[in-house]
Amino acid sequence: MFVLPPTRRLSPFVLAIALALAGPAAFAADGSDVDKVNGSITAETGKTYGDLNTVNGSVTLQDSARTGDAETVNGSIEAGNNVTTGGLSTVNGNVRVGTGAQVSGGIETVNGSVFVDRRSHVAKGVETVNGAIGLVATELGGGIETVNGDITVGIDTRVHGDIKVKKPSASWMPISLGSKRKPRIIIGPNAVVDGELVFEREVVLYVHKTARIGKVTGATPVAYSTPRAPAGE
User: Whole-model pTM?
Assistant: First the structure.
């Protein structure tokens, strides 16, 4: 383990490097924060942590782990079953949440997908720029927002906020040029969207006959009654 001299004061930069070099044993699961520059972080099964932050590395929350917010820049976030956590955020990476999770914040990524499995509760919204969003039998306290991603509000899911697909801005033009594919928006069996569905760009919208949704702007819903939405466009 990397040990710092007790009488020497270190700059924040040097401290960050020291933390990055420290092995996993340097961090006790006692509710304290974990910060790294380079390296992945794992919250172990059934243990309690504070906020988890890294720059270059993935974050893994094993089953029944309890944490504060979990954030990375270049890396994915994988949360197991029955975790309790704060917000989940990355820039370049996917976010996947298992069954029975309690997320007290929102879920965000720029270049990556988001998937939340059954019996999970997310207190705030879900956002991506370039990445699909999928929710199955999940309760979402906020809304859903994307620019280029598909959205699936799956079976028995409830979204308490709006669904919005934004028009690509000038800053995202290099990403969106070369692809004229329309995002697919699917509202599945027995799903509920309490808010409005607002589309600033052309999309394909499928709504199951058993689903309930709010006002739709910018798209014409296509009804379906099969277990899965049509392959379509």
Answer: 0.84
